[in-house]
Amino acid sequence: MVCTICYDSLFKQPVKNNNNNNNNRRRNTGQGHRPAALSCGHTFHKGCINRWVSSSSSYNCPICGVFAETDPTVLFIELGEEDAKHIVSDNANAGNSSNSSSSSSSNNGGRSKPADIDDLVEHITRMSLREKRESEKREADIESKLKAVEEELRSIKTQLNDSQNSANWYKGEVTRLERLSERHVDNINGLHRALHNKKCDLEELEDEFDEFKRSYGHYY
To answer: Could you list the residue range(s) of the whole structural domain that residue 96 is in?
Structure first.
C-alpha cells in the first residue's frame, strides 16, 4: 500500500538523510511519515497530505476530490522491521509473475501479506474515523452543555443584579421613610411642648384671675 502523493510505501521506515541538497525526493520522518486518513477514508503520509493541502487552493482529497471536513487522522500503526521490509519488497515487486504471487499466497494461509495489511489499514482507518467522529460529537455535546450553563449563569447574574437593584431601591425607600418619620416625631414633640406651654400659660392666667377676684370681688 503506497502513498499516492510520493509513491512510497505507507509503512516504509523513515531514513535519516544528512544531505540538505536532496530536497526533490525528501522523505518524511517521525510524525510526518505516519499514515494519515482523510474524512473520505483515503490514506497518505501525514507530511505529504499536509504539503498537498498547503500548496492547494482547496482542501480536497488528491484521489477522489472530496472536501476534507476535518484534519487528517494519524493512524498509529507500529510495524516491525521485518514486516516493513516485506511490505516495501512486495510493493517494489508488484509486477512479478502469478506463480510467485500464488506461492506467496500459499505461504501466508491463502492470502498475501500486503492484502492483510491493506485490510488492517482499512479497518484501522474506519475505526479511527469513527472514533474521531464520536470524539467530535462528544466535544460538540460538551460545548452545547457548556453554552447552556453559561447562558444559565448569565440569566442568574441578571436576576441577581435586578434583585440587588431592587434591594438598593427598597433600602433607599426605608432610609427616606425613616428620615420622614423622624421629622414627624420632631413635629409631634414640638406640638406637645407647645401644648404644655399653653397649659402652663392658662394656669397662670387662672391663678391671676382668682387673685384678682379675691382682691376686688367686693366691688362687684
So the answer is: 30-142
Measured in whole angstroms, the distance separating CA 177 from the mean position of its chain's CA atoms is 51
Q: What is the pLDDT of residues 170-220, one digit of tens each?
A: 999 999 999 999 999 999 999 999 999 999 999 989 888 888 888 776 665
pTM beyond 0.70, yes or no = no
Of 27, 26, 21, the C-alpha closest to 9 is 27
Q: Provide the grid cell at 62.
A: 488528491
Q: Is residue 135 part of a domain?
A: yes
Counted domains in the chain: 1
